[in-house]
């Protein structure tokens, strides 16, 4: 049963999610994916997000571009940790970043880098890992694999 | 009966409204002022904004700072023209400006300059003037007064 | 009879208008399109814009790039609501955005997002809708269609 | 026993923490506060952070200004969720924000707004709340209080 | 008889002109100062600027803040060299700078630094100097004085 | 005999000059073109620029990218009007623009828009026109042609 | 025996190094190249960098993109001069530049331009030249060659 | 005998140097201080800088604000390592930073943070330390003192 919900403001943002999906596959985790817009489907966002806590979700990833209100609107309707994913659609993604990270006091959004869906997912996994020893172990393994991959590349470069 | 609704995300933004209030006084117009937050009182925003059209309003001014979602959230709940007022609270107001003006396709927000509550009100008045000959005349007078004020200052400067 | 005037600073900006034209087609509305430059044809701008109110127009959309003065110059010559469309031609459109939105007190320009001609048109339509029940109904329908389109995409994504 | 660790890069950043401390008081929660610099005391950071997981912490808040490396360096040494707090010390805090949020793939930092220590703490609390029914209830109460506070201000403004 | 015209968009910008006035005094030159706004008094700008060439002026300095259209509008009405002075009123003056310097092809504005009225005047003087041997000599002297002033400060610092 | 000198910091910048060259052709004017770098050939810049006034030049255009010091270095060695042309080589040209326009008091550089070699040349021509009735007439004609070109495009668009 | 160490945060950054490698070839110098990440292999960075001084190195070049912590982390572990190379990976490289150059007091990083690996290497060579007369002579020759290359291009352009 | 030369573009920049002077005192080192402007005293800069290598200097610190050309101009006249110090005078120092760090290929400037004269001096000291065992030891001690200072503050904060 998925514990991570992912909401994108538009299906045109799906390619940005690929790096994140790959991470989830590595952890054999699933997520519930929805396409919902803070501005075009506000009622559906409210309804869907309000039920996430009761349905046992542990984290919500919300990604959007431009004046990216989706993560903040999601955060307004749940006390679950909300992870904001700024998507590059204009101004190099700086507008989306500022629209997500500069939330007013009281309603935080845990913002990751522009287009960094892998880090959005890993942040959700780090939260899940607090309650799930198996995921925590996998997260340690993931880190070790990353380290090993860099060291392997380092070896190759050193050997010319 | 007021035709202009003004929503601020926080009562700490009230001083920014002063220039706008002065303009409304000049036009002998009233507005309905509400303090409602897109993130702290989303249900109240939805409820209030959804009724504005039925209550005969012609324009909504929404002002907020930082990740300023209020104008966009207001626009998602009404087909009335929504005027977005970016308020300087951090990053010189650039975050609020981008969070308001860079709306996704389909839900426009008519954005004015940073802290420019006078222009937000004048834009609302320009919209009202389309249906009200008296306001239109006053708007022409207001412009003439502004012109005359500048020319008067010009005369003073020329005369040293 | 068109109620919306559209002025572009250069015919090289015409492709940016396509999204807006599509919206107008959806509403079966017409607009009067002019290519006039604030700097190369200032007299023609003054003459054209000064007559718009008398000719019964309800809104003017003005689009330009770089040091985009056209919307402000248009606003200086009419009390009609002027909608400013920043066009991306350099610096990711940030120069055009700031040149349009940061108008001095007294002469507002209702600014939409960079290259967002669809939102410029929708803002004009929202203004027209205040006086025209038919357009208002179409605007509600347009919103509902947008909502339905997102929900349809959401269904497809959920069904994998 | 505290579950939240807070690391600041410099004791000159302590005033920024005040809003966050107030939130913790509201929740009757404690945190373990350390002054450790990614550049001046790298060994101490490594040692302290590496032990946090074993000591039962659930989240680490790391705040720094300028080229703010502390949150990223902390995240490199623990799989616990790391919350990055950009502190305004130059360039309006934009340098700190980008230095924290734009982490490379694999090591996320959950970034909050510039100087937003209240939101950093609330994000940590939202993570704690996943495992602690009492905190979760308090978080719901906190939200309700915030809502009520805004509505109370709204009432005052409406009553003039 | 003055050869330099100076137009400011607002009398609140007069203090910015002080450094420039001091330079003119050094050269025993006069200028004709006007307060005229591109948006509030467009007709007066057009009329005044159109006559400058016929009246024997050699350069026009135009200063404005925010969405600073004045220099561009001035340039649209004269073939005289127009010197644009961006005035800091918001966003650290970056909006005024971009609104002035990023002129479309065909109508240049010679832009100087933000609030740099001294350089605006010196640029006008450099243009005058091309036709006036006396001014040219004074400009060489001015440069020598500047050099000497720096070298004098250098001597003081070296002597501790 | 050319009255306009053009110095580029690198021959890789030559394509940026094309728009400017076309303008000069229109005016049947010539320029003296040099490739000289403020950093790689400082002595040659000093020598060349120091002689320009004596050789009868009326304006110098200097173009460079990145940390564009060339225009300022040129201005330090002549009292002739120096026109700075920021060339886009990184950061969308913003680094070049700021490096050129933000000159310290005393040594102005007349800055035009990023990559706007046409405007750099037209500014030089506006300066030449002050002393040359023939060029002044051609400048008026050039403006009229530009106006006519826009009006012609406007006619085409209106006729659909 | 190489005196220059080069550390890149990722092997995907290797193409950026090409300009620098070419410079080293010109000087017949070698460097020790490592791929080590501040976040993925912090222990390896600490170990490797801590030994550089003892192994006789004179300078370390560290290059990274986005939230580029590598140069600062390297500088925290050695008193050798550390040269920071910001690599363009997002936001035009501005995030990497600020993450590298805005180091807190006490631990400097000698930052060069975005993607400017040639200048990073030349800076290291300038440091080596202080102790090595042969390299110093080659550096003078390199400068002379650069000067000659520009003058040669200048001659070609002058001859048309 | 001093090995470090410091050049400031203006004596108004002297207060920025205080942090750096304090560092030099800690190391019992002297520096040769000059006030020389790239634009107002170019000949003096050329003359002074050209002689530094022959006089046995090991590093030059050059500080300037706005369009800060001084460090680049210094670097053009010596093969010694040149350390660029951007000074905040406008635009939060971003103009000075970009004008210094974005040097063209071939002539590097080792740039430190905005107003970071302490780091400029420490970088010069790191270069001196390569040839001077005493300074190197002091640099290690300086680092240890910094570490101890942070740990002491950490202890105080932990003890409340």
| Strand line-up of the largest beta sheet of chain A | 2-1-3-4-5
Rg of chain A is 17 Å
First-last Cα distance of chain A: 47 Å
Number of helices of chain A: 6
Shape of chain A: globular
- Greatest interface: B-C, 37 and 37 residues
Unreliable stretches of chain A, pLDDT < 50, 5 or more residues?
A: none
Main structural class of chain A: alpha/beta
Strand content of chain A: 15-25%
| Oligomer type | homooctamer
Q: Strand count, sense and closure of the main sheet of chain A?
A: 5 strands, parallel
Mean pLDDT across all residues of chain A, rounded? Answer: 97
Number of strands of chain A: 5
Task: Report on this structure.
The structure is a homooctamer of 160-residue chains. With 160 residues, chain A is α/β, with parallel strands linked by helices. In chain A, 46% of the residues lie in helices and 16% in strands. Chain A has helices at residues 18-26, 42-52, 70-76, 94-101, 117-129, 133-158, and strands at 4-8, 31-35, 59-65, 82-87, 110-111. Chain A has a five-stranded parallel sheet, sandwiched between helices. Chain A is globular. The N and C termini of chain A lie far apart (47 Å). The mean pLDDT of chain A is 97. Chains in contact: A-B, A-C, A-D, A-G, B-C, B-D, B-E, C-E, C-F, D-G, D-H, E-F, E-H, F-G, F-H, G-H. Chain F binds chain H through residues 9-10, 37-40, 42, 46, 64-67, 69, 72-73, 75-77, 90-91, 94-95, 98-104, 106-107, and chain H through 9-10, 37-40, 42, 46, 64-67, 69, 72-73, 75-77, 90-91, 94-95, 98-104, 106-107.
């Amino acid at each position: 049963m998925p514990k991570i919900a992912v909401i994108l403001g538009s299906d045109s943002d799906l390619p940005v999610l690929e790096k994140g999906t790959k991470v989830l596959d590595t952890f054999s985790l699933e997520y519930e994916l929805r396409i919902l817009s803070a501005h075009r489907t506000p009622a559906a966002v409210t309804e869907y997000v309000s039920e996430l806590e009761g349905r046992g979700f542990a984290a919500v990833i919300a990604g959007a571009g431009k004046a990216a209100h989706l993560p903040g609107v999601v955060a307004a309707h749940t006390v679950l940790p909300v992870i904001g994913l700024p998507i590059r659609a204009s101004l190099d993604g700086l507008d989306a970043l500022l629209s997500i990270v500069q939330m007013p006091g009281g309603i935080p959004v845990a913002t990751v880098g522009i287009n960094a869906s892998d880090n959005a997912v890993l942040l959700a996994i780090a939260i899940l890992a607090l309650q799930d020893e198996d995921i925590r172990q996998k997260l340690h393994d993931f880190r070790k694999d990353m380290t090993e991959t860099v060291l392997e590349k380092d070896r190759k470069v050193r050997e010319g």
